[in-house]
Design a protein that fits this description.
The structure is a homodimer.
Chain A: H1 8-13, E1 14-19, E2 23-28, E3 35-40, H2 53-74, E4 78-83, E5 93-98, H3 120-135
Antiparallel strand pairs in A: 1-2, 2-3, 3-5, 4-5
Helix pairs in contact in A: 2-3
Amino acid sequence: MDEFKLDRRLESDSDTVMQTGLCDLRLSKDARWPWLILVPRRTDVSEIFELTPLDQVLLTFETEMVASALKKITGATKINIGALGNIVRQLHVHVIARFEGDANWPNPVWGFGKAEPYTADKRDDLIEKLREALSS
Amino acid sequence: MDEFKLDRRLESDSDTVMQTGLCDLRLSKDARWPWLILVPRRTDVSEIFELTPLDQVLLTFETEMVASALKKITGATKINIGALGNIVRQLHVHVIARFEGDANWPNPVWGFGKAEPYTADKRDDLIEKLREALSS
């Protein structure tokens, strides 16, 4: 089996939060929304149905653990979950905290406007809170 | 437990395809993309993590069975899967066949332009193919 290698665009557009059982968990560099990305450490997979059934279950549980933590930490109105991959084909799942009246509410975040950078403090604080919530 | 009742907007914007173990499977009335919607027959659930772990697994397997069938039937470039719910809060999962150069490629389908109706023939043909693929 080839060694897992994170797609370059995913790597440049997000910061690492932690590793979960199956995935690399990353925070998008776009501060307009608290936006997480789970990347299963599997090679040559673009669609969830290409994962083994066990990996599909792991991905679901890890996605929902992350979604539930993000909801708790941010008090989001709604969590948006999506696996699109029209641009980056390496399988990845978005978990985004949405708020009534946010930058593109109620439409999706993908492809909308330009990313706004985090301040280092704000980013580190969010990553810290996520690590805490996900390790307890 | 309250009886499951399909959200009115989901009902008016889509046609029934079949029932799966957990979900009502429906076809969006928007012919711009082959677009399916899975609605778990559970009451008062907006987020996937509010389902029991078993229902989360069922939802994943049913979503991916549908995604895989849709890919086979349509020859799509990429399947897009999303659970947003910013407008309709009853939990539902979108499974959409995307093609390079389609109406909003590579951006998402949600909130883009206006739905285009199917001809009855084209809709019935797609539903028939889906039922066949999903019952074999």
